[in-house]
Each structure stands twice: as C-alpha cells, then as structure tokens.
Design goal:
By secondary structure, the protein is of the alpha/beta class. The chain is 32% helix and 23% strand.
C-alpha cells in the first residue's frame, strides 16, 4: 500500500530523497549568494574581505568558506546605516511588512518581508501546523502576540490558508482566552509554553476542568520549554491536550520548525533553509548527533536574507528520515538551550532549562521559578537561590522542610552544586504571556560586564 499523503502539507517536498534535496539546496544557495553579493553592500564587503564569491559554491560544504553573521553585527549595521542597514536585497517597491526581532535584552533588529516572503512564510508555517494535526475546520486560538511580534501574524496567515476559524486574541486577555476555550470550543491553541501553563492554572482557578474545553492539540514556542518532559507534561495534563514544540526567529522566520505526531524533534524545512550545527570553539561542523550552535542560511528569503546566521541556540542534528515519513533533518530534544543563557556559578556551567526540568517534576510545586544570583561580600562567595512557589497554600511545616530538602537535592544532582531553595507563596512570581525572564543577575562583576 502507498503512503498516506494526507499527513503531509506538501508531500513531494517533505519526502524528497536526500540526493534531490541536496541538489535543490545547492541550486538555491548559488542563487542566494549571488544576489546577496550584487545587491547588498553589507554582504559584498563581507564576502570580499573573506575572499569568497558565488564561484566558490560548488558543493553545499563550500558554505563553510563564508563568514558567519551575528545579531550584534546586524545591530551595528543598522546603527551605522539607519533604519534598515544595507543587508536588504529586494527592491523597496516589493517591501510589504517590517518586523523587529524580539528578546529580553538588546536593541531589536529590523527585518523586512517582501510580498514573496509573506507567501513563503505563510506556506512554511502552514506546513508546521499541518504536521501537528491542524486541519481545515479547526478553531485555532492564536495566543501568540500580534503587532510587531512576528509569530502572531505568521500563524494567522497560515491558519487562514489551511481553512481554520482563527481567534486572533493574541497574548493577553486571559479571562477571555478561557471564555473562548469553554464557549467557542477552540480545538487548537498556539502560545508560549509559559502562557500555556498559566492558562491551565487559570482554567482550574475558574473552576473549569479539561472536559469543559475542546482543545485537542497545541503548539508552543517563542521560548524553550515544550520539549522539556516536565514542562510538556504540565501543559498536557493542565489542558488535556497533545503539546508540540515550535521554533522560529525573527531574523530567519517566525514559525518554520515544529514537531510531528511522533514527537521525534523539530523538523527543519531544508528546502528553504540550509542547516548547520557548529562547534562554538573550532567553528567547524560537529558530527551528527553532537551538540553545537545552530547556524541557518536562507535559501529563498527575498528581502532580508541571512547567510550563515549564528543563532546562539544549541541543538543536535539527526539527518535520518523520521518515522512519520518526512526526510528533512530534525533536532531531537529541540532547542537544548542558548549559549548566551549559560550561567557560570562557582566554576560550574548550567542552563535555566536544567532548573526547569527539576522544578516541574515536583507536583507540589508551581511550574514557575526564578534563578537569583547574588554575592555575599562578607563571606566572599556567590550565592545561587532558586525561588519556587508551593502549589498548596497550606502545608505542614515538616512537609515543607522535607520538600525543600528533596528539591535542593534534585537540583544538586542536575546542576552539580547545591543551590539555596526558597519557597514563596503561590502567585508571587510574575506570569507572562510573552517570553519569561527567569534569571536575576545581581553579582557585581557580571552586572558590570553585561
């Protein structure tokens, strides 16, 4: 029997052989590098300085001869050449939308969508939504922010293309979110992992259960978390759904990688993006399966293409076909952290996601947490305090002490050192519909450096 093509948004593209996919990537890469050189002073100066040109692209591996692009360089370019810098490639007459990058720190980088970009971003986002099971007739509650945050619009365009009824509520109005869940019976939820967990908490606080809502699936991105087992479980149990991971970057595309029904990792759209995983020290590719920095090159982006964009996100790559039948490479475990989110404490390196996994594995604790780093001048030592909320308002003190000890021990096992554990009342830690900022850095040396 033949394969069921209905599980694919674009069967021909998503199941291409590796040989055909490589050939397609190479042709597009040559086209993209050539237009960037001839239409962008930013790229022409960089390529000339590195002594490379389109003629150097004979195989896909030849992309390694080209320089990386870092976000700081894009910021500097736009500061020196306001407002958009010189890395725009399409003519201005084709510009349709401007979108700034997001994040908790730094000046945003403005990127442009041309008319062609709007179409390609819509198509690839529709592909990602289809891969998690979104179908015509679904009622999709889009709790990604609208406005200048790029992901909300991408999901909106793609949902309409698939044939969904879209609720364009954005990342706010929590009571109304719950009202739509209960009364309009939305079937799909798109949000950040933090907001999904908060909505689950508020659903319970409003005396509703998962049987009162109709949501069956959700896709959650904008920050890491969904592929952390404890976080995924918190979302799935709290809302009674299947939860899938989502990934995007304003500089690359807001929503261009997601899981499939098998949850084997983020599927990359390799017909549109050349994916590399690079050792941060040697700047050379790591072997398949090893962790490195995700580097992405646009193969079709028209207005503001990126050539070897250094994302700072940590991933591993698996090029083998997925059980779902998709042949494009995927990243098991999704985004494993960010190189710039790494915390250095007393000679130990760790990531917030490690804390998240521990905290969310305890049913007695709220999913929210904060990592506070301070310095005790009198004792000449740094202090790491993990603040978490007790799920139950009233708990006997002996049980609180036991739980505190268990939490500290679990964190020591995960991090390699024993942090201070502080329990606070439920609702003390701020919730957010956007990207949660969970690190509070108050050590003088680090504050000055940042």
């Amino acid at each position: 029997m033949g394969r069921d093509t209905s599980v694919f948004f674009d069967y021909k593209v998503e199941t291409m052989s590796r040989g055909d996919l490589d050939a397609l990537q190479l042709a597009k890469l040559k086209w993209q590098v050539d237009r960037c050189y001839h239409r962008s002073e930013f790229y022409r100066e960089r390529f000339d300085a590195a002594g490379v040109s389109r003629a150097d692209i004979k195989t896909l591996n030849d992309i390694r001869k080209f320089p990386f692009v870092h976000k700081e360089e894009l910021r500097g370019e736009q500061a020196q050449h306001p407002f958009l810098g010189r890395f725009t490639v399409a003519p201005q007459a084709e510009f349709r939308e401007v979108h700034p990058s997001t994040g908790t720190t730094g000046t945003p980088v403005n990127t442009i969508w041309s008319a062609r970009d709007v179409q390609y971003i819509t198509d690839v986002t529709a592909r990602t939504l289809w891969s998690i099971g979104v179908r015509p007739g679904d009622v999709l509650q889009n709790a990604f922010a609208y406005g200048l945050w790029v992901a909300g619009l991408a999901v909106h365009y793609a949902s309409a293309k698939i044939g969904c009824l879209v609720i364009p509520i954005g990342a706010a109005l929590t009571e109304r979110q719950i009202d739509y869940m209960v009364r309009l019976k939305s079937t799909v939820l798109i949000a950040t992992p933090s907001y999904a967990i908060y909505l689950a908490e508020q659903l319970k606080a409003h005396n509703y259960s998962t049987s009162d809502i109709g949501i069956r699936i959700g896709c959650f991105g904008g920050e890491p978390g969904t592929e952390v087992p404890a976080t995924r479980q918190a979302i799935e149990n709290g809302l009674g759904i299947d939860a899938y991971d989502y990934y995007g970057l304003a500089e690359i595309g807001p929503t261009f990688a997601s899981e499939c029904a098998h949850k084997t990792g983020l599927h990359w759209s390799e017909d549109l993006h050349l994916i590399e995983v690079i050792d941060p020290e040697t700047k050379e590719p790591v072997p398949d399966g090893e962790i490195g920095i995700l580097v992405i090159t646009h193969l079709e982006r028209s207005a503001t293409p990126m050539i070897r964009y250094w994302t700072n996100d940590l991933v591993r790559l698996d090029p083998s076909p997925c059980p779902c039948g998709r042949t494009h490479a995927r990243s098991p475990g999704g985004i494993l952290g960010r190189a710039d989110d790494m915390i250095v404490f007393m000679g130990v390196n760790f990531y917030p996601m490690q804390v998240e996994q521990v905290v969310r594995s305890f049913e007695e604790l709220s999913p929210e947490y904060r990592i506070r780093l301070t310095h005790d001048a009198s004792a000449h030592r740094d202090i790491c305090t993990i603040s978490v909320e007790l799920e139950q308002e009233e708990m006997p003190q002996p049980r609180v002490s036991t739980l505190q000890e268990k939490t500290a021990n679990a964190l020591r096992e995960a991090l390699g050192f024993r942090p201070e554990v502080e329990f606070v009342r439920q609702g003390t830690l701020e919730r957010t519909a956007f990207k949660a900022k969970r690190i509070i850095e108050e050590r003088p040396a680090f504050v000055k450096r940042s």
